[in-house]
Amino acid sequence: MTTYILRRLIQTVGLLFILSAILFTLVNVAPGGPITAYAGRRPRPERIEQLKRQFGLDQPLPLQYVYWLVGNDWTKIDSDGDGIKDTAGSRKGILRGDFGLSYRTRKPALDEIASRLPNTIYLMSITMAVALIIAIPLGIYSAIKQYSLFDFFATTFSFAGQAIPEFWLGLLLIIIFYAWLKNPWTGEPLLPAGGISSLDGGFSLSDRLAHLVLPVLTGTLGWIAWYSRFLRSSMLEILPLNYLKAARARGMTERNVIFKHALSNALIPIVTLIALDLPYIFTGAVLIESIFAWPGMGRLYYQSAVDRDYPLLLAVLIIGAAFIILCNLIADILYAYLDPRVRYE
Amino acid sequence: MIQSTNLSSIIWKRFTRHRGAIVGMVIISIIIVLCIFAFISPFDSEKSNLPEKFLPPSSTYLLGTDALGRDLLTRILYGGRISLAVGGIAVAISLLIGVPVGALAGYYGGKIDTILMRITDAFLSLPSFLVLILLAAILREVDLPIFQRNSVFTISLVIGILSWMTFARLVRAAFLTLREMDYVSAARALGSSDGRIMLGHILPNGIGVVIVEATLQLGYAIIQEAGLSFLNFGIQQPTPSWGNLIYSAQDHFTKYPWLAIFPGIAIFLTIISVNYIGDGLRDAFDPYKVMEKVGEFT
Lengths: 345, 298
Prior knowledge:
The complex is a heterodimer. Chain A is built from twelve helices and two strands; from the N terminus they run H-H-H-H-E-E-H-H-H-H-H-H-H-H. Chain A is mostly helical. Chain A has a two-stranded antiparallel ribbon. In chain A, helix 1 (2-29) runs antiparallel to helix 12 (310-338) and helix 8 crosses helix 10 (254-291). The radius of gyration of chain A is 26 Å and the shape is flat. In chain B, helix 3 runs antiparallel to helix 9 (194-230) and helix 5 runs antiparallel to helix 6 (152-161). The radius of gyration of chain B is 23 Å and the shape is globular. The model of chain B is unreliable at 293-298 (pLDDT under 50). Helix content of chain B is 70%, strand content 0%. By secondary structure, chain B is an all-alpha fold. Chain B has a single domain, classed as MetI-like fold. At the A-B interface, helix 1, helix 6, helix 7, helix 10 and helix 11 of A face helix 4, helix 5, helix 9 and helix 11 of B.
């Protein structure tokens, strides 16, 4: 199995390089770019030429890609734009964690991401935890009582939950809990409609929780629908199996049969699925964080797309792709570890 | 008594037994017909009529009017044309890429398979919605003849290019098993060309999964367009789409909630119908269940 995983890892990392080259080219032929970002509104043509030399945009694209990848501190560049390569480069390249400076803030792209990432992890881990806490019992009960009224409603709910666009759900919740429902004592909106905490004053747990409710509710519904439906069908496949009949025949209580023997097997695919879904939870943050003005990575990405802040966009995409590859690998390993029948050749 | 029957009539019969799928069929048909006949609306979908702005739903304006006094229902119907068209074209494009990739990989195997599947893996490891935003943000500024400022075609193309991978994998899997069948060897022995075997003999037998997946992808593409337009990177105003209707409702939606609510209901109804249809088709195409039925009939 180790060789299988190693081989796949090497192949996929190779692919990551190809992907990064494609993304890099795309962004470099796109309008906008550093000249627009740095030259001011009506730059003179000489100034543009100078900037091009300073940013190394006069170099052939493959060389630019190499610099972007491994840095240019091993060679001389033309930092003052006079046409002579006389100073040592200072870029370290993305392989050493240098994704360049954000056009907007002129700070390292990686620092920008690092300052926003905790907020996204905070929101998304709670969203995910809530989803699983609700979806697992829902899926199990729905499967045990297949075709009951409860199952009918749970299944319908899961179809509906997957069909609701989450940004629309977010707006609906704001209409209900911010615009319509008021706090009976203060007359203020029942729940805040944006931000991670109130601007005034310090830390308060109730304030933090109040700010979490709407974004978590918005984000979690689709995942509840998805996991409960998946667990239901996963349980339904296992429930008629003989080893459960054998357990019952040995006099085991139904409770133990379901929760000890059936559930532990039904959860295996879910664990793998969660690993595979992790990246998409972060992708979903773009919409949720934009609606609720949540100061996380998703909103940073959206803002960067509006400003066409290419270093930041590329940094998020490359890190995102690496994260997806990592999660796929973890899913493979987990699957083989949890289910001894799985063998990779 | 032997009753004459064929596979497609069995599939249709099984499909009609799925209640959700039938309801979905009815709803989606109504939506499509309404969108096609949007022109019978007495109101203009793009021309502003400021004195009538922000009117709540009434007997004249069934779903109210927007910030420029345009009838919301009319705009939702015209927006539906755009959203459904994006969905349809996007799926067509991913089929055009995914099916040949999967067919070639599955049929020839070996090096071709490895290369094509690694490309597929590469696309699968892209955070697709984020790439979609990047491409749309770039293309929004480009004015090439076919890519006019995020036209319906541009958005569909971008969505399609980022979502063909499931088709490739499904078709490859189908080809891997089907190419070993005796009837394929027979066709080869009779001198059929590879192309003919792939298109005429193998593909029709693997079409079930493709149709099911295409249905689900249709809903997915519509949601992607809506999300993209909601961030204002998709279809641009004044052309309405369900997503950008919700985007433009954002400034006023707490005061005039109908502007946000109704376009979302249109998306919701479409997606849930499409998903139920997909579910029904999956059951209908399930080879084990179909074979059971064939057994019954003979």
